[in-house]
């Protein structure tokens, strides 16, 4: 039977996000990490930087000596989280049975889809390239860890499917460190037993592995034979989407606060549109210049998602704070109780708190 568990990610996600966000970096190696003047380390790198000898967790200063052409950039988590949201929405339009693994990385359960594995992979790759210019690598297998290893073997922009019957053959030449949960101690013990590859582990057999490693040995044997978890833990959609703005000097002018609020609403509307969601509750958070804060919320009978509806609700909430009389240093707006809107939804307020 064809494998229906997919793994998709963008190798070097942080670095690739920086590359697509800055056209001048299109043909240049990119390193993302901490400040080299403060012994910052590499958190992500493009493949050309890795090929030049850069390694994750290496000091950025050393990485730049190994790859002098590289552009080193400081980590920008808000940028990466925003791109992850967009990528997740893009992937979900192909397969909505999705489990987030990390920023830019997902497991998918495609068992309910009618397309072939190759067609699903092509749809995922094409959507990510067209909408975000990000190169997905994709693997498919009967177990989650096999799908992930297949993607790693496929490489950027590639796709590899490993059937259940081929899993053991696929895994056999891989180093034991590629099996789930094999750290330095387990690797050392397996090397003592003469096992350097997954195939060697399988050849040791049940008795030897159980005697040496107990239940952990049996788990490793199962992994070497291609058996593993196939449960994709699906989250239907985010439970909350939010936006914030920090006002450096404290703002008291209502008109200026209204403009900041509109900016938050427009960004929140785009986030809802990306996910195909509507909010049944809107929450406004303010922090005053003296450090005190206030939260106001507004609930709806059915979901709202348009700029007009969100802005109207947000303005009402702002009126219920001390805006205009006390300087405000931070504005935050959150959409909660998210749902997929129905066509006949009416955007009517229900109650305020």
What spatial order of strands do you see in the largest sheet?
5-6-1-7-8
Strand tally is 13
> Regarding CATH, which class of the domain at 240-352?
Alpha Beta
- Percent of residues in helices comes to 25-40%
CATH superfamily of the domain at 240-352: DNA polymerase, Y-family, little finger domain
Cα shape: globular
Separation, N- and C-terminal Cα atoms: 54 Å
Radius of gyration: 25 Å
Number of helices: 12
Mean pLDDT: 90
Query: What string, H for helix and E for strand, traces the elements in order?
Result: EHEEHHEHEEHEHEHHHHEHEEHEE
Q: Which residues sit in consecutive blocks of at least 5 with pLDDT less than 50?
A: 343-353
Q: Please name the CATH topology of the domain at 240-352.
A: Dna Ligase, domain 1
β-strand percent reads 15-25%
Description of the structure:
The chain has 353 residues and is an alpha+beta fold. Among the domains are: 172-224, 5' to 3' exonuclease, C-terminal subdomain (DNA polymerase, domain 1, Orthogonal Bundle), CATH 1.10.150.20; 240-352, DNA polymerase, Y-family, little finger domain (Dna Ligase, domain 1, 2-Layer Sandwich), CATH 3.30.1490.100. Helices cover 39% and strands 24% of the residues. It has twelve helices and 13 strands. The protein has helices at 13-21, 47-51, 60-66, 77-92, 117-132, 144-154, 167-171, 184-192, 198-213, 215-224, 254-275, 307-319; strands spanning 5-9, 30-33, 42-45, 71-74, 98-102, 105-109, 137-141, 159-161, 240-251, 278-288, 293-304, 328-339, 349-352. The strands form three sheets. A five-stranded mixed β-sheet has the order 5-6-1-7-8. A five-stranded antiparallel β-sheet has the order 9-12-10-11-13, with helices on one face. Strand 5 and strand 6 (105-109) form a beta hairpin. Helix 4 (77-92) packs across helix 5 (117-132), helix 9 (198-213) packs antiparallel against helix 10 and helix 11 packs across helix 12 (307-319). The termini are far apart.
């Amino acid at each position: 039977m064809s494998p229906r568990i997919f793994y998709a990610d963008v190798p070097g996600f942080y670095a690739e996000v920086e590359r697509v966000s800055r056209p001048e970096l299109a043909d240049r190696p990119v390193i993302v990490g901490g400040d080299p003047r403060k012994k910052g380390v590499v958190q992500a790198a493009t493949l050309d930087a890795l090929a030049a000898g850069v390694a994750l967790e290496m000091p950025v200063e050393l990485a730049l000596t190994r790859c002098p052409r590289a552009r080193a950039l400081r980590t920008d988590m808000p940028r990466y989280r925003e791109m992850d949201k967009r990528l997740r929405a893009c992937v979900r339009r192909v397969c909505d049975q999705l489990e987030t693994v990390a920023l830019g990385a997902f497991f998918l359960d495609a068992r309910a889809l009618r397309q072939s594995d190759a067609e699903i992979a092509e749809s995922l790759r094409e959507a990510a390239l067209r909408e975000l210019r990000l190169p997905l690598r994709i693997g498919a297998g009967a177990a989650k860890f096999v799908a992930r290893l297949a993607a790693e073997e496929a490489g950027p922009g590639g796709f590899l499917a490993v059937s259940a019957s081929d899993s053991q053959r696929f895994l056999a030449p891989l180093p034991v460190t590629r099996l789930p949960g094999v750290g330095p101690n387990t690797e050392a013990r397996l090397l003592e037993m003469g096992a350097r590859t997954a195939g060697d582990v399988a050849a040791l057999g049940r008795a030897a592995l159980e005697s040496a490693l107990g239940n952990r040995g049996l788990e490793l044997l199962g992994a070497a034979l291609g058996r593993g978890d196939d449960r994709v833990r699906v989250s239907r959609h985010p439970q909350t989407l939010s936006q914030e703005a920090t006002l450096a000097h404290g703002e008291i002018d209502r008109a200026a606060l209204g403009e900041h609020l509109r900016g938050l609403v427009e960004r929140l509307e785009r986030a809802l549109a990306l996910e195909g969601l509507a909010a049944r509750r809107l929450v406004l958070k303010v922090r005053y210049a003296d450090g005190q804060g206030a939260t106001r919320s507004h609930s709806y009978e059915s979901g709202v998602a348009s700029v007009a509806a969100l802005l109207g609700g947000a303005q009402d909430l702002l009126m219920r704070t001390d805006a205009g009389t006390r300087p405000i240093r931070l504005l935050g707006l959150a959409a909660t109780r998210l749902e997929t809107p129905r066509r006949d939804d009416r955007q009517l307020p229900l109650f305020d708190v």
